[in-house]
Amino acid sequence: MKFYFDGDSFTYGGGLQKRCGIDPTQVRWSKIVSDYFDAEEINVSEIGAPNDRVLRHLFVDNFDLVRDCDCIFIQLTFPIRNEFWSDKYHKWFRIPNPHSMMKNYFGSKHDAWLDYYSSEIYSDKYGMTRELVAYNSIVSYLKLIGKPFYITGLSHYDHINYDYHFGRGEFDRIPNDRHPSVLGHQQIAEKIVKSCYINVREYLHK
């Protein structure tokens, strides 16, 4: 039995390694949920990941893998994030990205473009629409393949009824960090198990 997880740092276990010296793969909520159902955890989340990357993983890179999994957990994040493919460097880049890293590839042009994007292109309507398109695409597809799924969110908009929202969730956080602590991951996992238990068990006993 396999459980598929994707999202950003809140699903990856952000802050645990850097601030606490703890391997996130051993304590994050996705592992706890998988262990509860005696399932293999397949967690492809990445720190700072945009929704575009989650969609690309789901519909392109991991398309067959997702169909092979027994339950799918998807976390959407801030819709201002994006990604692009560079033919020059043959890799995907996320935006926003640490300026020091991007300068190594694109010089100061990246900073100028990012400032223009955030101030002149991005708007709440644009962001909310992008988030809703991502959400409805994912939900429609997962309903089509008939697998139990659980969708979580993070953005500050309030127009989608997520199964769980990390931005408004009550859980213990790493000191001076908004990410969940080890205890926080346990608290999140407990809530998620309780809310998806029936659907997952019904699917597994078909």
Description:
By secondary structure, the protein is α/β, with parallel strands linked by helices. The protein is 49% helix and 15% strand. The chain contains nine helices and seven strands. The chain has helices spanning 9-12, 16-20, 29-36, 51-61, 63-68, 99-106, 109-121, 124-145, 182-204; strands spanning 2-6, 40-43, 71-75, 82-86, 91-95, 149-153, 164-165. The strands form two sheets. Strands 2-1-3-6-7 form a five-stranded parallel beta sheet, with helices on both faces. A hairpin with a 4-residue loop joins β4 and β5 (91-95). α3 (29-36) runs parallel beside α9 (182-204). It is globular.
Quick recap of the structure?
The protein is of the alpha/beta class. It is 49% helix and 15% strand.
